[in-house]
Amino acid sequence: MKLAFSAGRYAGVLIAWCLCVTAASAQTGPPKPKVPPGQDPGGLAVALIGAGVDYRRPDIAAWLARDGEGEMIAWDVIDDDPRPLEAAPVASRQVPPHAGTIMAQRLKAEAPAIRLIPIRVPDADPLALGGALAFTAQTPARIAVLLAAADRQPDARSWALFRDTARRAAHLLIITTSRHRGGDSDGGTSAPQPLGLDTLVTVTAADAAGAIIAGATWGAERVDVAIPVGPESVPAADAPDRAAALENVAAVRLAALAARLLALDPGLNGQGLKARLIALARPFPGSPAMRTRYGWITEAVLMASPK
């Protein structure tokens, strides 16, 4: 696979990104399996940045974005190779934290016309996320979904690569969860929310009635919108890992809606697409203590055909 990076425009980004993948590269064990042969399926490209995917599965391999030689457009920042295989197999339908394959399947179910660019990153590593975003910016992706775990000790300097790349990649909409792991995020400093990016949308998980689910994060300033995750997914208990996984579901569902909107208006940049999404948000029913900046997008609006 060959991608054309712009040496002049992205020189600083590429230097930091190369340092990032060199430091992270530590592949051990047998070589990863080859990607099944195939051709690019066409459609709008969405990058899924997180745990990687099981690209061996026929239902995943069939909609991978590919280059002119039929090679998967993807990257594994951890192993520094183009095969982001999810480390642990997904053995059940229950949503475990940050399971890339399950999230990819959910994305495809709600936006069947897209193609996937999977990128595997280590949890809680802002520099690795910056490298992943730099890679994403040079692919056909128009939407990037961040599913990595929270950075518990955020350092503004470590987010510089991510911030600078996002500002240069104006064509790219970035969707992420709050990365705060529960509670009110407004008093915290967890990035990327404080970076001031007008192409970034932060989501949390709600139930069908618009209530933030137990254990999820909210914030009238730091979280943009709540997304219903579906009645079959709402947890019975407030386990933090379950809540984090459901926030990932919310991010993927919003990405699917964004992809359907962008397919109707391909000229939108990241800021314009964000504005379209935010315009669909409605006030929460009642006066909830747990709220977001713009409210929530109802299930009916989320699944309606965009116009």
Outline the secondary-structure elements.
Blueprint lengths: L10 H14 L20 E6 L7 H4 L13 E2 L23 H11 L4 E6 L5 H12 L5 E4 L13 H9 L4 E5 L5 E2 L15 E7 L10 E2 L6 E4 L11 H25 L5 H10 L19 H5 L4
Parallel strand pairs: 1-3, 1-4, 2-3, 4-5, 5-7, 6-8, 7-9
Helix pairs in contact: 1-4, 3-6, 4-5, 6-7
Describe the overall structure:
- It is globular and about 55 Å long.
- The strands form 2 sheets. It has a 7-stranded parallel sheet, with helices on both faces. Strands 6-8 form a two-stranded parallel ribbon.
- Helix content is 29%, strand content 12%.
- By secondary structure, it is α/β, with parallel strands linked by helices.
- It has a single domain, classed as Peptidase S8/S53 domain (Rossmann fold).
- The termini are far apart.
- Mean pLDDT is 83; it is low at 4-19 and 21-25.
